[in-house]
Structures are given as C-alpha cells and as structure tokens.
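can u pls check wat happens w/ glutamic acid
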Amino acid sequence: MTKFRVRFAPSPTGPLHIGGVRTALYNYLLARQQGGSFILRIEDTDQTRYVPGAEAYIVEALRWCGLELDEGPGIGGDYGPYRQSERKDLYQKYAQQLLDQGQAYYAFDSAADLDRLRAEYEARKAVFRYDNSTRMDLLNSLTLPTDEVKRRLEAGEPYTVRLKIPRDEEVSIQDRIRGTVTFKSNELDDKIILKADGLPTYHLANIVDDHFMEISHVIRGEEWLPSTAHHIYLYRFLNWESTMPQFAHLPLILKPKGKGKLSKRDGAKLGIPVFPLAWEGDRPEDSFAGFREFGFLPQAVNNFLAFLGWNPGTEQELFSMDQLSTDFSLERIGKSGARFDYPKARWFNQQYLIATPDVDLVALLRAHDTDGLTTDRSDAFLAAFAGLMKERVQVLPEFWEAGYYFFGPVRDYETKMIRKKWKPERRAAFDALRDRWAELEDFTAAGAEALVKAFMEEQGWGFGDVLPILRLGLSGTMKGPSVFAIGALLGREEVSQRLQLAYDYFDQYHREQASA
Ligand code: GLU
C-alpha cells in the first residue's frame, strides 16, 4: 500500500491567508489520522512575486496553530530540498524530456506581441488564448524551421516552454470531494511550463515535486481545480500517471455576507482578522493584525476552520485536535462554499476560553496586556480574574475592556442606575455595611454574601436595594461577575476605599440632579 503523504505547498508571495491555514489544517488532520506524513513545500519559483519574510510567516503560522510538520525546509526529510528554488535542475530536466518527446515546444513570442494579440481579440469581444487553435499562427518551434529555432536558442533569444495540449480530447479526474470532473482539451491553453528565466512555472514544478516527494493526496483549494487538467497531461506525458496522487479540491471560503470569495479587503473593511498572525507590510494599508492578535486561541481557530467546509454529520461542534484527527474525513467535506462566519469564530473562542484552566490563561493574559496592567499582579490574582471573567468575554482583549476595574479605579458609573437606586438617606447604613465588609474575618465571596444577607435582613431591604449599589460602587457597571467575588478579589482596602469614593460620588450626583 502506498504511504499517505500530503503536502502544504504555499507560495511565499505574502502572508498566509486564513484559507491557506484551512488547507494546511485539513492536510495535517488527514496525515495524523492515516499515520502519514505532513510536508511543507515552499513554491518559490516566481521570483517576481517573492516576498521576503513570507516563508518565515508561514512557518510561524503553522507552529502557532500546532500543525506540526514531518518534513520541510529547516526540518529536513528524505525528499528534500523542500524549497523549489533549490530544485531547479530537476525541472529543467523534465521540461527537456517533454520537448524531446514533442509534448512541449519553445515559444518565442514577445510579451508585446502577446499583449497586442490580446487587445485585438478583446476589441472583437473575444479572448485570446495560446492553445491548439492559435499556436500554429504564432512564433514557436512548431511553426519555425528547425534551424531557425536552433539559431534563436544559440543566440540566447528569450523563450518559454509551453505544454502542447492535444486536440479534441477529454480528460477526467476522480476528485475525492467533487466526484468525476471532466475537462475538454480544446478549452485548455498551452500553459507555460518553463519561463524565460529558466525557472519552471507552478504547474511543472508542482507535478515534478509531487511525483518525487511521493505525494499520495493533493488536498488544495478549489481555485486549483482548472489547473488539474494540465497536471493530468503532465503526469501522462511524463509517464507517471499510474502513481498520480488522488485529488481533493476544498470549497471556497466565502465573505461574511456569503457572496464571493473572502478577501484581504474584507478584513480591513469589517475590522476582522482574515490572516492567522500580524503582518507588517510596506505600507500601512498592507499591515494588519491576525487571529492571534485579535485574541484567539489557536485551538479555537482550528475548530472554527475545520467547520469551514467540513461537518461531522452530528450536532457536535467542539472538537479537540485529537478528536478532529479521528473524526475528520474527505467524504464529509462539502462542495459548496463555506461562509466566513466571524461571530461563530468568536463563539468557538469563548468555548475554548471557558474550557482552558484559569492558571493556563495567565500567560495568555500577560501576553495580551499592552498597557502593563498585569506587571505587578500575581499569577494567583490573574488566574482568579480569568476565572471570573472568561464566561463574559469572547476574545482576550475583552478581558481588559470588560474587567479593567480589577486593575485600577472605576472610570465611570452607570448613572441611570445611580438615579434609580441611590437614596442619600441610606448613606449611613451603607457606610456601616462598608466597614463591616472591610473588617470581615472570612474575607471571601461566601463570607461577603453571608454578611450582606444579614445586613439586608436587619434593614428589611431586598437584594435590589443593596446589590446594585455595591456592584456600581466596585465596578461602575451592572454587568459582570458576582459582586461578592469582585470584592473578594479586590481585597479589603480596595473595597473600602472604592465604596467610600463611590458613595461620595453618588451623593454628589444626586445633589446635582436635584438642583438641575
Ligand atoms: N503554490 C500553490 C499555492 O500557492 C500550491 C497549490 C497546490 O497545492 O497545488 O497555493
């Protein structure tokens, strides 16, 4: 049996889009499940689109997501090198073989000639294609005399090598997601397989590498489906068809609104992440934060991405990586596009925050603390804070937005509640309660609760008379964890000072309202 070997083969042309991360994830999960190998191959043959830093970004994104590689640049493996720019000779050899077999040809048409043709066709509302219907009218080794071709090559004239697609044929693939997909050869262009700079194009390099790296399954985005027809011809011409990998083309990821492919611009427009990690571009508009900086946990991102195209066929939504690598299957990947549902991503993240032990959230909170709030706070304090807040937030920065008052004074009070609840004639009673709380022997949430209940009974007051006042006094807001728990974490001194300050403010506010 052939070994299960899959590759993630990004081109380092910029940061890795979240769709690329999904492709990597699906490959990774299936490799784990099948006891196979997950390989990173850097497809860097297009020098004009090469972006420094992109490869490092890709590697870091995979590492952050926990998609551990078995082979790849910097890791090694028996099938290297894993960067296409380091495998040039191999591609030239197979381009030459195709030329020798008459299944590829030299083309000498200049870029200007081809542009002119394109414009001419466009004027007639047609599309120019270099293919089996036009190639005999163009400047190539099929139309030029042999010695003229030789002369041009010897003179070092620029050329490309094109694949000679046969006429009037049909080619089919058995796609693991889409079933039989058939292409008509007359609709295929004669793709360039080797460029003027001697480097192969994606098509040739991809096929040669998949062959020699013994890739068993090609799992990639739907946008590559049309190219597969050319790839089949390459496998066929090189006599590798019997060991050709199986194909699975993943559905598109659609915009949050559902129409069209999710793009980089959607991220900027909607203020949502569409990349895994931050990227520093040349211009401000090319720089952005990723899921990591938006405060997502990688496990949540993986779970979210798994569902962008796949479903388990049950109601279950939360899947650890271990569970995913057991339950995941090509058969349950859909054909139609999956909508990028950002609120769902946030929901997943919340579930993972809740499931993460409080002590494990401490390091994450410190890492996401841009204002130095946590600097002089103990791990125990932060763990307790995380425990109180994690059900109330969805992404890490919301811990600070919703719970800033654990780290400093209340910034403002919900005045509507002051108007509704504060009665100046009760100030003395509330002062007494404040003192008793500060002196409480059992200074815990439970201790505070018992104390407050006793106080309510003494006064003949209900919860609605007391708790909103304490809550507003300590946090300024009616939203948040139990007021007793807030008090316990803030500590005696803080509770006492904060309530005193708040009551003064409530009194003053009341006076202002009365005189207004
Ligand atoms: N280099 C291609 C990309 O950037 C790889 C496509 C494939 O997996 O064959 O996505």
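The first helix runs from residue 18 to 33.
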